[in-house]
Design goal:
Structural class: alpha+beta
Number of helices: 12
Shape: globular
CATH class of the largest domain: Alpha Beta
CATH superfamily of the largest domain: DD-peptidase/beta-lactamase superfamily
Largest sheet: 8 strands, antiparallel
Oligomer: single chain
Number of domains: 2
Helix content: 10-25%
CATH architecture of the largest domain: 3-Layer(aba) Sandwich
Strand order of the largest sheet: 2-1-15-14-13-12-11-10
Number of strands: 23
């Protein structure tokens, strides 16, 4: 999994026999102390809890702290739960995967889309987010039925013919939530609570919209915040004009709006080895490599609401990420080894890179532990030797401007590389990334290393 997350980061040696719990504590706490990770994390190995941490604030304004029971917005990690709701309905004979969705939404202008297409993100339906950005009154909160009515009114073309491609579709999972309501005669939140969360003992998990007038924010709620480089502090997304969609899209559920804790997600992961709410054969369908995510990639597939790698150096992996302004979520389960990493951040930390570092610890690979990087003065003529274009899967270019070194990538903002020694530079954007130049006795560059959240891999000059 980790080698899919960053620039061809190849482990260069093995850890000595050290206690993995201590290494995880040092690595994760270092990401909090030096690189602004706030959130909750659980790591289990061979089905046994190895590490659990809560770091940072649940509310940045009131300075209340996160706890083990802090509840986070799941974003797209809501999708496997929506999928399981559909699977429960299927086992009860309330629907078939082959059912055309016009059976439930007769006025939809799209033919030959099935429930199976919605589950596997192969429907080709238009993005409701784009439609509501352009055609919705942003002063009003939208709900699931509004998505159906927008599709009916707009009649926008499908992105592709159903079943011919894979593309993440939040629209499809909104429709799945509505289907559950139609065939069960229960609210989406009530159905999942009664038939999924309660039977699994997930006592802190629920479908929730904190902005509805009759809803009170729970005491243990982890409020998502975004960091402002200009203000040098955290703000609630709803207070910033760039995130106005958190107001008008926050009533839509199925693709998101499920709230949970690391502890409840661990219970859910354990249930995947024998689920009491659905049969093993139905569960196996969900966790199978149902459709390839790309016609050119034979390693990454999609099941029902989950990404599936059937084969890797760590065996079979199922995973899902989630995001919403202020939140970043990563769930990665190594089903053959019964290892799981669950990271919930309420300050938009890059949890995928953090997850990759935790994987390195579990695999006994070298990981450079986080530390405070301090800028030093160097002879700026040295920078001329470092300028150039390098590759390790992605392409990076180092350029010199006004006596300083910058990382340049087309389409992104330049990032200054600050020297901490004549040969090592750290990214000035606050992330745990460094560039290290290895030189010979005459000062010629012989190797270049890219260090990303503790993982070190070689860059090759083009």
């Amino acid at each position: 999994m980790k080698k899919l997350l960053s620039l061809l980061l190849i482990p260069i040696s093995l850890f000595a026999q050290q206690d993995q719990s201590s290494l995880l504590l040092q690595f994760i706490k270092g990401q909090h102390d030096y690189f602004r990770f706030d959130g909750n994390i659980i790591v289990a190995k061979d089905g046994k809890l190895l590490c659990q941490l809560s770091l940072g604030y649940a509310n940045y304004q009131e300075k209340t702290m996160l706890s083990d029971n802090s509840v986070f917005e799941m974003g797209s990690l809501s999708k496997p739960f929506t999928a399981m709701g559909i699977m429960i309905c299927k086992e009860r004979g309330l629907l078939r995967y082959e059912d055309d969705i016009r059976k439930f939404f007769p006025a939809l202008p799209y033919e030959h889309i099935t429930v199976w297409n919605l589950l596997t993100n192969t429907s080709g339906l238009p993005s409701y987010e784009e439609q509501f950005k352009m055609y919705w009154d942003h002063k009003k909160m939208a709900f699931n039925q509004d998505v159906v009515e927008m599709l009916q009114q707009r009649k926008d073309s499908l992105i592709f013919k159903p079943g011919t491609k894979w593309q993440n579709s939040n629209t499809g999972y909104v429709l799945l939530a509505l289907i559950i309501e139609k065939i069960s005669s229960m609210g989406f939140d009530q159905f999942l609570s009664k038939n999924l969360f309660q039977p699994l003992g997930m006592t802190h998990t629920f479908v929730y919209n904190p902005k509805l007038p009759d809803r009170k924010i729970p005491d243990n709620y982890a409020l998502g915040s975004v960091y402002s480089d200009s203000l040098k502090n955290y703000s609630f997304p709803g207070s910033l004009p760039a995130f106005d969609f958190v107001h008008y899209l926050d009533g839509i559920a199925g693709d998101s709006r499920i709230q949970s804790t690391v502890g409840d997600l661990l219970k859910w992961n354990q249930s995947l080895y024998g689920n009491p709410v659905i049969s093993q054969s139905t569960l196996d369908e969900m966790l199978s490599p149902v459709v390839p995510k790309s016609l050119t990639d034979t390693s990454n597939y999609y099941g029902f609401g989950l990404n599936v790698q059937p084969k890797s150096q760590d065996g079979k992996i199922i995973s899902q990420t989630g995001s919403w302004p202020g939140y970043r979520i990563n769930f990665t389960s190594f089903t053959d080894k019964k290892d799981v990493i669950i990271v919930l951040s309420n300050n938009e930390f890059n949890v995928s890179f953090l997850t990759a570092g935790v994987e390195s610890v579990l695999d006994g690979e070298t990981l450079i532990m986080p530390y405070e990087h301090k800028e030093v003065k160097i002879d700026t003529s040295l920078l001329n030797k470092y300028v150039g274009t390098y590759t390790a899967g992605l392409t990076l270019e180092f350029v010199k401007k006004d006596g300083e070194l910058f990382r340049y990538r087309k389409g992104t903002q330049d990032i200054e590389l600050k020297p901490e020694s004549p040969t090592k530079f750290f990214y000035a954007d606050g992330t745990d990334r460094q560039i290290e130049f290895e030189t010979d006795a005459e000062g010629h560059v012989i190797k270049v290393w890219f260090i990303n959240t503790g993982q070190k891999g070689e860059l090759r000059k083009i």
